[in-house]
Amino acid sequence: MTPPTATPSARRAAGRAATAVERASAALGRLRRGRLLHPAGASFATDVTIWGTSGPPTGVGMLDDPGRYRGTVRLSKGTPTPGGWPDVLGLALRVRLDSGTPFDLLVSSSGAAPVLRSLPLPRRRFTGTYSTIMSYRVGPRRLWLAALADPESVDLGRSLSSVAAAARTEAPRLVLAVASAVGPWRPVGQLCIGAQLSAREDAALAFDPLRNLPPELRAAGPLAWLREQTYRGSRRARGAADQSGGSTATV
């Protein structure tokens, strides 16, 4: 994301860098014959319930106002490592907003404390804290989003097969939360994992956490730029559209 005030030479340099990252990501994706990032995953239908924020509003209508949405959730392993070995675990959520546009939220296993919520941390179990890692801006303020473990929900286990088994027998839940850079997590809702989608539906999903956002949110920081080029290259390598899958996978 090049600042609008950048000089022509800076914009050209940024464009060349973006093209290089996208091409490299596409080449690696073709070698892997699939997703470059988080290739091993399982996708499920989900119901998302927003309770609204406690305390000061975030300024994002979808988070501040109670509502219920249908969507798709994908849990995945980043590398992936064998079996239940530690890995950076991922959770991707697509919510269809009342306006008809998608909201794509991508979060990675991290720590819950403020100093750790911006760091991806490997772990063995799918139950735990998932943070956006990168921050968002709502006007002049920065905001982090997360999916947290629900202590009253079934454990998701150490493998994708254990996640699928939990979804077949119960309805696993995770708590959706928001936080500032140094403040505590504030619960705003929950997602409930439902029926598993087919392998074909899972392969068709293509999330875009930078463009598929509520109008009040925008991604911030250099990680957003790197993520944009990497995901674009990965989608290009497997011929996936920016909004393929998810929008129809739960109807």
Summarize the helix and strand pattern as letters.
Answer: HEHEEEEEEHEEHEH
Highest-level CATH class: Mainly Beta
Spans where pLDDT lies below 50 across 5 or more residues: 10-33, 242-251
Helix content: 10-25%
Number of domains: 1
Number of strands: 10
Beta strand %: 25-35%
**Biggest β-sheet, characterized?**
8 strands, antiparallel, barrel
Name the structural class.
alpha+beta
Query: What is the name of the CATH architecture?
Result: Beta Barrel
Question: What strand order characterises the main sheet?
Answer: 1-2-3-4-5-7-8-9
Give the CA-CA distance, first to last residue: 35 Å
Report on the structure:
The chain has helices at residues 8-32, 61-64, 160-169, 199-204, 222-237; strands at residues 40-50, 67-77, 89-96, 102-109, 130-131, 136-138, 141-149, 173-179, 186-196, 218-219. The protein has five helices and ten strands, in the order H-E-H-E-E-E-E-E-E-H-E-E-H-E-H. With 251 residues, the chain is an alpha+beta fold. A hairpin with a 5-residue loop joins strand 3 (89-96) and strand 4. The protein has a single domain (38-220), classed as Catalase HpII,  Chain A, domain 1 (Beta Barrel). The radius of gyration is 18 Å and the shape is globular. Helix 1 packs across helix 5. The protein has an eight-stranded antiparallel beta barrel with strand order 1-2-3-4-5-7-8-9. The protein is 24% helix and 29% strand. The protein starts with 7 loop residues before the first helix and ends in a 14-residue tail after the last helix.
